[in-house]
Amino acid sequence: MDEVKQIVTDIKNGNIKPIYFLMGEESYYIDKITEYIDRNVLAEEEKGFNQMVLYGRDVTIDDIVSNAKRYPMMAERQVVIIKEAQDLSRTIEKLADYAEHPQPTTVLVICYKYKKIDKRKKLYKTVAKSGVIYESKKLYENQVSDWIRKVLAGAKYSIEPKAAQMLVEFLGTDLNKINNELEKLKLIVPQENQITADTIEENIGISKEFNNFELRKAIGVRNVIKAHRIINYFAQNPKDNPLVMTISLLYSYFSQVLQYHGLSDKSQRNVAATLKINPYFVSDYSDAARNYPMKKVSQIIALLREADVKSKGVGATNLPPGDILKELLVKIMG
What sign does the CA torsion over 25, 180, 5, 161 have? Predict the structure, then answer.
């Protein structure tokens, strides 16, 4: 996020580069930088003749170079945006010759999503010298809650840790998908108000009681009744609560509990930093560690691997997902 802010700040200050090569697995920031350039580099009256959007599937590298070398009309510069440039992955290296001597009055934006170019090759090296290369990396699950908090803070909103975790567990790590839901919430929740678990349940349809976060917590404190109630709900609503997601999240959780057991410094600050979790959730891990010794946690991780195999139809072809989860829960909490 800091790198994105710096790119935007430089453009605001007039430090505009002739090439912006935006690449990587996470499309959200590629879209955001492109959108900012699209809206702010040229005045509205200049865009008609001097701003164009091309798509990788429709053009060749020669087409891109030809358009980039064109001079602006009645403006200081022109903007050429190439969307879905990953469709040109087989020939993208040919852009290196242009990048070596780019047209100074052109701002060429290459949106190269879900892939990245080889840093050892000429294209990367020439663009790095003459322009900006930004790699948008996929955030890990444990980073997304913090991202949600920062995005909302920038718009003068706050969010409960549990509410942020609910969003992550329901929507995954796709920042565009999460941002769409945050935009909806901003229309509903007054500015400077806190977004709570109730807000999420009422407006996005994620149950605040029957979700993976609550299941994990119930297992951690050995609340057998609550854990069984949650998995029964999951069994009745399998589309909204896929087994593979539940197993994956439990595997991640118990892997962190195992890591907690190995820490010599179990202070809140150190646990949060080492496990890469919000300090608010540290007590959940200390509770789980008390209830599940290291040997038991290792066994649970093995059980989760077995359940994952079964969920994919190996050795349990006709076993419904709900039954696999119920069997798993009995073994974990037994």
Answer: negative
